[in-house]
Design goal:
The radius of gyration is 27 Å and the shape is globular. The longest helix is centred in the middle third of the chain and has 20 residues. Helix 9 crosses helix 10, helix 9 runs parallel beside helix 14 and helix 11 packs parallel to helix 12. The chain is 34% helix and 19% strand. It has a 7-stranded mixed sheet with strand order 12-11-13-14-16-15-22, with helices on both faces. With 645 residues, it is α/β, with parallel strands linked by helices.
Length: 645
């Protein structure tokens, strides 16, 4: 993605899912219309390659210079039943010539590879949207499987849309007839044909995808050549067919970004890079102790590729072993991380409590998903906040940090590491499935922009006894941070006890003394309460009476909704929290400025509960727990009601 220049602070995203400002040029025999934004959704069976298709279209869009936001949506099963509604996989991409915040509310274009994909997604399309269907899959049996009694392509039910019936499978097989492939093997390339067609429609670059296919199938050059041929055939079909008389241009987002080098990045990839950057800035080896779990596994996969940066990854036999190994690595002087989702946090809770007692730096990365129990493994939710705050036995306070966008996962990882290393404490980093799998442009930072996380290990005695003897006390604290010294095992003279039984203040010896336990509990709480975090700065240009307060991945939909309301003349303020424990020091004062506080969350009101309890502010919850992110229009309607009440 090319360098960009900074955008106006409040560039309009007032209609986050609406295509406006179309202009028409002429390019040869076909018209070219200029749009300021487009929302495309690819949908098909889990085996149709919709995630790969969407990812490639996204990569080319990023290299072209558009701002973008994506929403992958797929079943939890590795290969769900073909042709069924539960087996539909989709990938939505919103790209524009200006700053955008969400994957969009309603697609302008749906590519449906079969009847199930059409039926599962048609309800999200506005009238007039374009629908490209693979007619080869609309057999009587396939349609009956999803409840169609008549063909939707012929019964008039799609008359309100711009329908493009395309025999994608037939055209793909015909394009690949010169290759020594079986029909089934040739049919697998129909997603590349569709990608080529859409790339022609929206003037996407092609070089990156062809290079990708050559690399992906480097050991199978015939398959690589076939996929490239299908991709080119799709492009040529768009160029020559009379059914597509118009193509579209969405100019690069020339004013959306500060100058710099950009790349497309997903939340999990940004988080992995942030952990590596933190380890380099701290001059510590990075250790990940993890057990695979959706949607966190990609972090393990990515970090395992970076041994050259001193990264060690350990795929344990279960969640408990993963965090146990990570805590051991922290004791040994590494920047230690464990990654998981909500079910794994439940299993790790005792060891997180041990890390609280041992007062060692440990990053607990929770990529939240729908629950309870196994719940909805591939769907998103924000329902682990109270678990992160209180899900341990005893008084075991843990700081909590939450990123707000996929790219922000990089900075959130650095901030979580700063807190863990400075204050010697485990830290929760609460991302979620929406951020983890979604993507957006990310400006690659310069090294001198990164924080200095250098750690000083204990080197010798730090306490003098009454008789003048110099000794090492493992729980003698820094007077400012209340952090205890970090002593590397094997350092002469720094031997000390370790274990889960309560420690004596200073010496670290085992203690059952009631007064000492009271002191240690209160000291650990005071350490977390005293963590220095930035003040929250509400965005309130008009002196509003209503504040919308969010955290985590609700940032995009909330901000898009706020822009819409302001564009229509409404007055509303917005504040978004990165630090959830401790809260920013000025949060109470900010909340009391407003007559009404609305807290949208993808749970049943967990942050709102904490706000009410701590600040005695009667915050209103607006909640959603359907496994999907908020839509901007939905939030805007709810916030308008809050303003008008």
């Amino acid at each position: 993605m090319t360098s960009q220049v900074s955008s106006p602070a409040e560039q309009a995203d007032g209609a986050d899912d609406t295509v406006v400002g179309a202009q028409r040029d002429t390019a040869g025999a076909k018209d070219v219309r200029r749009l300021d934004r487009v929302i495309i959704r690819f949908a098909g069976d889990s085996g149709d390659g919709m995630q790969l298709t969407g990812d490639r279209f996204t990569s080319e869009t990023a290299s072209f210079g558009n701002d973008l936001s994506t929403l992958p949506n797929f079943p939890a099963e590795i290969r769900a039943p073909a042709g069924t509604l539960p087996g539909v996989s989709s990938f939505q991409l919103h790209f524009a010539d200006h700053d955008i915040l969400t994957p969009g509310d309603a697609p302008n274009v749906l590519v449906a590879m079969n009847p199930a994909a059409l039926k599962a997604n048609i309800g999200d399309l506005p009238r007039g949207a374009e629908i490209i269907v693979n007619t080869d899959e609309f057999t009587k049996r396939a349609m009956q499987k999803v409840g169609y009694t008549t063909s939707p392509l012929e019964d008039g039910s799609l008359d309100g849309y711009s329908l493009h019936p395309v025999p994608l499978t037939t055209l793909t097989v015909e394009a690949l007839k010169e290759f020594a492939l079986t029909r089934k093997e040739a049919e697998r390339s129909k997603n590349m044909f569709a990608l080529g067609l859409l790339s022609w429609m929206y003037h996407r670059p092609t070089e990156g995808t062809e290079k990708f296919l050559k690399a992906k199938f480097a050991k199978k050059p015939d398959i690589a050549a076939a996929n490239i041929a299908a991709y080119r055939a799709g492009w040529n079909f768009g160029e020559t067919t009379e059914d597509f008389a118009v193509s579209y241009q969405v100019a690069p987002a020339a004013t959306a970004f500060p100058p710099g080098v950009y790349r497309n990045i997903s939340g999990n990839l940004a988080l992995a890079y942030g952990l590596i950057a933190a380890s380099r800035q701290a001059d510590l080896p990075l250790f990940l102790g993890s057990y695979p779990i959706t949607p966190a596994s990609d972090i393990l996969h990515e970090l395992s590729r970076h041994k050259n940066f001193g990264v060690r990854t350990f795929q344990a036999e279960d969640e408990i072993a993963g965090i146990g190994a990570a805590l051991g690595a922290a004791f040994g002087g590494s920047l230690a991380v464990t990654t998981t989702s909500g079910p794994g946090v439940a299993l790790k809770s005792e060891t997180i409590g041990l890390a609280v007692s041992l007062e060692l730096p440990l990053l607990v990365v929770d990529i939240q998903r729908g629950g309870p129990s196994t719940g909805l493994p591939t769907k998103t939710e924000q329902a682990d906040l109270l678990q992160a705050m209180y899900g341990r036995n005893g008084e075991a306070p843990v700081p909590v940090v939450a990123p707000r966008t996929p790219a922000d996962c990089f900075d959130a990882a650095l901030e979580a590491a700063r807190i863990a290393l400075t204050y010697r404490t485990p830290v929760f980093l609460l991302s979620d499935g929406y951020l983890a799998n979604g993507s957006e442009p990310w400006r690659v930072p310069e090294v001198d922009e990164l924080p200095d996380l250098t750690v000083q290990f204990a080197q010798g005695p730090n306490h003098t006894l009454d008789d003048g003897t110099e000794v090492f006390w493992p729980y003698k604290r820094d007077p400012h941070s209340l952090a205890r010294p970090w002593a590397i095992p094997g350092t002469p003279g720094l031997e000390h006890r370790i274990g889960g039984i309560e420690k004596q203040d200073g010496t670290g010896n085992i203690s059952y003394d009631p007064a000492n336990h009271d002191l240690m509990v209160r000291t650990r709480q005071a350490k977390v309460d005293g963590i220095e975090v930035p003040d929250v700065e509400p965005d309130d240009p008009d002196g509003a009476r209503t504040l919308v307060l969010g955290w985590g991945s609700t940032y995009g939909p909330i901000t898009a909704a706020v822009r819409r309301i302001r564009k229509e003349g409404g007055r509303i303020a917005q504040a978004h929290l990165r630090h959830l424990n401790p809260f920013p020091g000025n949060l109470g004062e900010v909340l009391r400025r407003y007559d009404r506080v609305v807290v949208p969350e993808m749970n049943l009101g967990q942050l709102a509960t904490l706000i009410r309890a701590k600040y005695l502010v009667d915050a209103d919850s607006y909640n959603q727990v359907n496994g999907m992110p908020f839509k901007a229009e939905q939030l805007a309607a709810a916030l308008k009601e809050a303003i008008d009440d």
